[in-house]
Design goal:
One of its GO terms (cellular component) is cytosol. By secondary structure, the protein is mainly alpha-helical. It is built from eleven helices and no strands. It has a single domain, classed as Heme Oxygenase, Chain A (Up-down Bundle), CATH 1.20.910. α2 packs parallel to α11. The mean pLDDT is 94.
C-alpha cells in the first residue's frame, strides 16, 4: 500500500472531524462571523511564513534536483501567492502591516509552526514530508468539500475557490507523489516515524481551525 493511502485511512476519523467542525460548517454556509474569519486569516498569514520556511528546509534536504525545485517553488507559493489571497482579506478588515506584525501567534498557530520547523530542522527528509503533507492534502479536501456545499453569495468564496482550484490540486498531487516516493525506500521504523508526523500534523490542523473558532489567545 502506498504511504499516502495508508496515512489517509489511518487518519480518516480525524479528517471527518475537521470536515464537520463548526468553523468549516459555518464557512460553507457563509455564516462564519467576520471576527472568527479575521482571527483565522491573520493567524494563517503568520502560519504561511513558517510553512514556507519548512518547505525551504525540505528543499535543502531533498535528494533529487526536481524535488529541490518543487519545494522551493512551494515555499514561494506559500509566501507570495497564498499571502496575496490573505492580503486581500486583511485589507478588507483594515489590517495593515504594523497591526499584523504586532499580532502574536495564537497558541495553536505557534504550536503548529514550531512543530513543523523543529521537524524540518531535526528530522530526516522522509519524516519532514510526512509532517508537511497534511497541510496540503487536508486543505484541498476541505476546499473541495466546502465548494460542493457552499451557499450562493458566500462572502468567503475567494478562499473556497483557491483551495478547491486546479492549481492547488496539482500542488497537492505533487506533494503526495513526493511523499510516496520517499516512503518507498524507508525502513519500517522510518516509515512509522513518517506516520507519527502525519498524524500529529493532522491533529494540529484541527487545533488551528478550532482555535480560530474559539478566538484562542494566550492566557497570560
Amino acid at each position: 500500500m502506498r504511504f499516502s493511502d495508508e496515512a489517509w485511512a489511518r487518519n480518516a476519523v480525524a479528517y471527518e472531524a475537521i470536515r464537520t467542525m463548526p468553523f468549516n460548517t459555518d464557512l460553507a454556509a457563509g455564516t462564519l462571523s467576520r471576527e472568527r474569519f479575521r482571527h483565522y486569516i491573520v493567524q494563517d498569514a503568520h502560519y504561511l511564513i513558517g510553512f514556507g520556511r519548512a518547505l525551504s528546509l525540505a528543499a535543502a534536504k531533498a535528494p533529487e534536483p526536481d524535488r529541490i525545485v518543487q519545494f522551493a517553488r512551494g515555499a514561494e507559493t506559500a509566501i507570495v501567492v497564498e499571502r496575496a489571497l490573505h492580503g486581500s482579506f486583511l485589507r478588507d478588515y483594515g489590517i495593515g502591516p504594523e497591526t499584523f506584525a504586532a499580532t502574536p501567534l495564537s497558541p495553536p498557530c505557534d504550536h503548529y509552526v514550531s512543530y513543523l520547523l523543529a521537524t524540518a530542522y531535526a528530522e530526516p527528509y522522509e519524516v519532514v514530508l510526512g509532517a508537511l503533507l497534511p497541510c496540503f492534502w487536508i486543505y484541498a479536501e476541505v476546499g473541495r468539500d466546502i465548494h460542493a456545499r457552499a451557499k450562493a453569495g458566500n462572502p468567503y468564496q475567494a478562499w473556497i475557490d483557491t483551495y478547491a482550484g486546479e492549481d492547488f490540486a496539482d500542488a497537492v498531487a505533487a506533494m503526495i507523489d513526493a511523499t510516496d516516493m520517499a516512503a518507498l525506500g524507508a525502513s519500517p521504523a522510518l516509515r512509522a516515524r513518517m506516520h507519527r508526523a502525519y498524524s500529529h500534523a493532522t491533529r494540529l490542523e484541527w487545533m488551528f481551525w478550532d482555535g480560530a473558532y474559539r478566538d484562542a489567545v494566550w492566557p497570560l
